[in-house]
Specification:
The longest helix is centred in the first third of the chain and has 18 residues. This protein is α/β, with parallel strands linked by helices. 38% of the residues lie in helices and 22% in strands. The chain binds S-adenosyl-L-homocysteine.
């Protein structure tokens, strides 16, 4: 019923192999996304091949920056996951990861819970709340090997939202869709203050396309000082 030729090719480019069940899960995810998108705002991208490329393959492109997600049972948190990107595609393709999905909108969390029930995904924790509020020591602070985030904020703000979740020696990888020389320059101070160090950026085009992507990799080299993150709203209103 669906034409999966291009998707299969793209997966091969990323060196990812999926079994039939995983392919079914992606199709089920697509259908649930479109169904719920008719009564709530989840995505502007709805055409089948576009969703495969710009949501699914894009989410999976992280293998170019973090190969061990393919095999290790790393703890991963997706901050501002929205309709589940990149977190859900990562969980489908790499079911051994321990995934936490965080978003400040309850409706999106409801959608994600429905998706994971329909797809029978295991080991997902859902958090409804602001990233600033769940990075407290009695909550999720410094519990993750990897923090990911796509299309949530500029790198400076995002570093304050994300780095507190990362364990020392862990990584924060931001998905960007344009060149970010200036944005990266403006985030230098924040990254340093929060205990991070910029590793590098992996620039790529999504397979068989000219769609540019930039995976910006920050390592956590020191614990984040207690005063960060500041109270909800400040990281975006007054970036460090
Ligand atoms: N990552 C998804 C969604 C991007 S839209 C994608 O790439 O498609 C941004 C999402 O971040 C929204 O769902 C919004 O509710 C959430 N968000 C924005 N600021 C947040 C914060 N401070 N804490 C938690 N979620 C936040």
């Amino acid at each position: 019923m669906y034409n999966l030729e291009q998707f299969q090719k793209d997966l091969k480019c990323l060196d990812i192999s999926l079994n039939e069940n995983q392919i079914d899960q992606f199709m089920n995810y697509y259908e649930t996304l479109i169904e719920w998108n008719s009564f709530m705002n989840l995505t502007a991208i709805v055409e089948f091949q576009d969703v495969l490329k710009k949501h699914f393959i894009d989410s999976l492109s992280i293998v170019k920056a973090y190969e061990k997600i393919k095999t290790e049972s790393v703890k991963v948190i997706d901050i501002g996951t929205g309709a589940g990107f990149p977190g859900i595609p990562l969980k489908i393709a790499f079911p051994q990861i321990k995934l936490t999905l965080l978003d400040s909108l309850q409706k999106k969390i409801n959608f994600l819970q429905e998706v994971s029930a329909r797809l029978k995904l295991q080991n997902i924790t859902f958090i409804h709340g602001r990233a600033e509020d769940y990075a407290k020591p009695d909550k999720e602070r410094e519990k993750y090997d990897l923090c990911v985030s796509r299309a949530v904020a500029n790198l400076s703000t995002l570093s304050e939202l994300c780095l507190p979740y990362v364990k020392p020696n862990g990584k924060f990888i931001s998905y960007k869709s344009e060149k970010i020389t200036e944005e990266a320059e403006n985030a230098k101070k924040a990254i340093h203050l929060l205990g991070g160090k910029t590793e590098n950026q992996i620039e790529l085009n999504l397979p068989d396309s000219n769609i540019y992507r930039n995976l910006f990799i920050i390592s956590k080299i020191q614990p984040t000082p207690k005063k960060y993150p500041r109270k909800a709203g400040l990281p975006s209103k007054e970036p460090l």
